[in-house]
Design brief:
A: 138 residues; alpha+beta; Thiol Ester Dehydrase, Chain A; 23% helix; elongated; B: 147 residues; 5-stranded antiparallel sheet; 3 helices; 20% helix
C-alpha cells in the first residue's frame, strides 16, 4: 500500500516512550564522538550550574525520529528533519529519564508528508518545531 | 564573536568514509532498531547499496567542520559556553555505508540577542562523485558573560 494514500492531516502515526539511562548517554558519547563531560559527570554538570547530567540534544533528536522510521518500514525515507532544543533532559543516575514521542501528520502533498513530533519529558516538551519530511521510496 | 566569519571560505575537510559497523554502532546508540540500519539484505531489498544511516548520523561527519570553526583563531567562540540551539538535516538522498562524504563549512549568520550570540553554519556533504547528499544546518548559542 502506498505510503501517502491512507494518510490524513492530524492523524497520529506513532506514539512511543524511550527509557534513557546513563548507559545510553555513554554509548551515545562513544558513537557520536561528543565527549562533553556534562553528559556523564555529575560534578562537572553541577560546576556549570546544571540541574544534573543532561542527555545530548543530538541523542534526543536521534531517538525522537525512530518511531517515524519504524512506521515508514522501508516505504519511504526521511528527507528533512529539524528540531529546536528548548529544554534539557536531566538523566538521573538511578532512575534515568523517560521521553515520550507522539508523531502526527501535519501536512500532505504530492511528493510526501510533514510529520510533526511532540517530544516530552516529565510533562514538558523538550524539542520545539520538531518536523520530519518523509518522501516515498520507489 | 567575529561577524566577518560569514564571509570566510573554509576548505573542505578530509573525506569521511561511512563504515557499515559505524552505521550499526550509531543506530544502536540512538535506539534505532529498524532492519535497514543493521541488516544488509533488508537494506538491499529496499533498494539501497548497503545499510542506511539513521537520519541524524551526519552530525558525526560534521564534527570535523565544527572543530574547524572552533579552531579559527579569531572566532571568539568559548566552547564551554556553547549550547546547541537548533539542528536540521536536509537530504538529497539517504547516507549508506560505503559513501565517502566530503564536508564543507559555511557560516551563514551571526546574531546577538540579549547578551548571547547565535552562530548558524551549514555543512554541505557531497559524495565521491561530487553529488550533494545532505546538508547539516546548526545554530549554536554562545552564552554571554552575565549569569
Amino acid at each position: 500500500m502506498s505510503l501517502l494514500a491512507a494518510l490524513e492531516t492530524g492523524q497520529v502515526i506513532a506514539e512511543r516512550s524511550f527509557a534513557l539511562s546513563r548507559d545510553t548517554l555513554v554509548r551515545y558519547a562513544g558513537a557520536s564522538g561528543d565527549f562533553n563531560p556534562i553528559h556523564y559527570r555529575d560534578d562537572v554538570a553541577a560546576a556549570v550550574g546544571l540541574p544534573g547530567v543532561l542527555a545530548h540534544g543530538m541523542l534526543t533528536m536521534g531517538v525522537a525520529v525512530q518511531p517515524v522510521v519504524d512506521w515508514l518500514d522501508g516505504r519511504g525515507w526521511v528527507s528533512d528533519y529539524q528540531v529546536r532544543f528548548t529544554r534539557p533532559v536531566v538523566v538521573d543516575p538511578e532512575s534515568g529519564a523517560e521521553i515520550t514521542v507522539v508523531a502526527t501528520v501535519a501536512a500532505l502533498d504530492d511528493e510526501g508528508a510533514r510529520i510533526d513530533l511532540t517530544v516530552s519529558y516529565g510533562g514538558s516538551t523538550v524539542l520545539g518545531k520538531a518536523q520530519v519530511r518523509v518522501t516515498p521510496l520507489g | 564573536m567575529n561577524p566577518e566569519l560569514t564571509e570566510r571560505d573554509f576548505a573542505p575537510v578530509a573525506p569521511y568514509l561511512v563504515g557499515r559497523e559505524k552505521v550499526r554502532e550509531f543506530a544502536r546508540a540512538v535506539l534505532a532498531t529498524a532492519p535497514l540500519h543493521h541488516d544488509v539484505e533488508a537494506a538491499r531489498a529496499a533498494g539501497f547499496a548497503d545499510v542506511v544511516a539513521p537520519p541524524t548520523f551526519p552530525i558525526v561527519v560534521s564534527e570535523a567542520t565544527l572543530q574547524q570553526l572552533l579552531a579559527e583563531p579569531d572566532a571568539g567562540i568559548d566552547f564551554s559556553r556553547v549550547v546547541h540551539g537548533d539542528q536540521r538535516f536536509t537530504y538529497s538522498r539517504p547516507v549508506v555505508a560505503g559513501d565517502e562524504l566530503t564536508a564543507t563549512l559555511r557560516v551563514t549568520s551571526i546574531k546577538s540577542l540579549g547578551g548571547n550570540s547565535m552562530i548558524t553554519s551549514e555543512t554541505a556533504m557531497v559524495d565521491a562523485n561530487g553529488e550533494h547528499v545532505v546538508t547539516s544546518i546548526s545554530t549554536l548559542v554562545v552564552r554571554g558573560d552575565e549569569s
